[in-house]
Amino acid sequence: MIFDENTLLLGIDIGTTGAKCAIYNLLGELVAHAYQEYPMICPQDGWAEQDPNRWWNAVKVNLNDCFFRQKVDSGRIAAISVSCTNALTLVDHHGNPVYNAIGHHDQRADAQVAWLREHVGEETIFQITANQLAKGTFSLPTLRWFCDNRPELMAEAYKFLMPSGFIIQKLTGKFSMNRPRMGLTLLSEIRTGKWSETIVERAEIPERLLPEAYGSCDIVGGVTRQAAELTGLREGTPVAAGCLDTAVATTGSGAINAGDAALTVGSSGRVCCINDHPVFDKRLLNCSSPFDGLYMTIQSTDNAGISLRWFRDVFGSAVAADAQKSGKSIYQYMDELVQKSPAGAGGLLYLPYLSGEKAPIWDSKARGVFFNIGLGSTYRDFLRAVMEGVAFSLRDCIGIMPEMSKNSEAIPIGGGIANSTVWCQIFADVLGRPIIQLRSNETETLGDAIIAAQSVEIEAVPRDFGKKLANQGTLLTPDSEHISYYEEQFIKYKALYANVKGLY
Which of 346, 326, 344 is nearest to 336 (CA)? Predict the structure, then answer.
């Protein structure tokens, strides 16, 4: 295939609350973009599910929007890559879900964690995977929950997939999982990237459920005729195995070499460091990099953008009319309100633990808290407290990542937060270090485009392409007057959780 200035790359990202499709040219410029939101499903307290068919429907709607309304020629797309959030999906031989996907906010598998601790061994799992045994974040306890509670579904299932694998199967007809995503299943070996026979056998997981393993830049297959008819894509377009959302967003931010780091704050907030070796620390999440020979350590706060969306959904009506009158979106208007609240939100503190929290506290019972509300507390103070609370949570994560604690270089920040200069500045002030507000906040789909380019060897888009684009971002330096105040607030933030922990 000849690649020239007309060549395009397609990135698809399946998130917790919505799916994005973005088409880029070889300069990294966004040519077309579409987004569809969908709800989480909470059939019981502590359960978090999604309907996988909504992912596929969202992708179809998005692609038809790009090709027919935005008039992009799908024949110019050289390759596709798909990234995703964490949600386990059981599918039959045809790739159809046999049950809702169970997401990373889900807290149902306590009994299964205890069973795995006894029958597989917590230390065995850690030594093989470099990750601790926990529910929600990792697939293994959820698979055991199906074994124990819905054996008829396990009998019906052919494979278990993540959202990216589900979409790739719809596009190509093939069942796959990329190695970075495998790293967060607790079923694969961190050093080899292969499924662990030891864990699979001891955990009594049917081997037939394991999809074929691929490197992120490997081609899984081409778009089928049926998928082409449904989406508008060209039949045969190569589809790469892709990556988990955090890893690919880090690639899109330009962090690809050992020692690099990046922040991605979308529905969840994630900080990621690149290493040349696996890091065995139970406080961290570990997986392989999209690129051979490298590894990633990840810390995540589950309810980052979700916190602001929750506040919008529950309390947004109080200012919706004013936002509409001003001709601004509700988020733009909220940003303006936050700018009118002083650093520290008038003393308000917010713990963003709406559905429990993993890193760094690993407390599934934790819930959100607003603390120190007074008669003078305003709507804008609550908004600012939400933004500051998310920043404090990620600072808490960074505190146990020695590579980042030693590094004082500017950190690129992408995801939805990059739309908000005031929130990016809060991060700079809370972390006490410069932040690069990326020009493209769509770091997941940009990273997908880079992976897609690597899969078909497009030299114009090298693996460090994101670093080149990051240099075009806006550098935000911390406000010296705010740093000391936030130091005090962070101490209170940590003490607040310590004091309410027993009440959960």
Answer: 326
Distance (Å, rounded) from C-alpha 141 to C-alpha 118?
13
CA angle 331, 337, 341 (to 5 degrees): 135
Q: What is the DSSP string of 417-436?
A: GGG-HHHHHHHHHHHTS-EE
Question: Does the reported pTM lie above 0.85?
Answer: yes
Q: How many CA atoms lie within 13 A of 368 on its CB side?
A: 19
- The C-alpha atoms of residue 466 and residue 13 are separated, in whole angstroms, by 17
d(CA 356, CA 475): 33
DSSP per residue, 208-259 = GGPPEEE-TTSEEEE--HHHHHHH-PPTT-EEE--EEHHHHHHHHHT--STT
In the numeric block, which tokens belong to residue 148? Answer: 């124990």
Q: What is the mean pLDDT of residues 385-397?
A: 96
Buried b (16+ CB within 10 A) or exposed e, 146-156: bbeeeeeebee
Name the band, by pLDDT with cuts 50, 70 and 90, for residue 470: confident
Residue from 93, 89, 20 nearest 51 by CA: 89
Q: Report d(CA 139, CA 299) in Å as an integer.
A: 17
Q: Which of 284, 34, 266, 287 is nearest to 177 (CA)?
A: 287
Q: How far apart are CA 90 and CA 102, in angstroms?
A: 9
Which of 120, 119, 50 shows the shortest CA–CA distance to 84? 50
Amino acid 406: pLDDT: 67
Give dist(CA 388, CA 66) in Å, integer. Answer: 36
Strand residues in 330-484 grouped as ranges (E): 349-351, 369-371, 411-414, 435-437, 474-476
Rounded CA-CA distance 153/90 in Å is: 8
Cα distance between the two ends of the chain: 59
8-state DSSP, 192: T
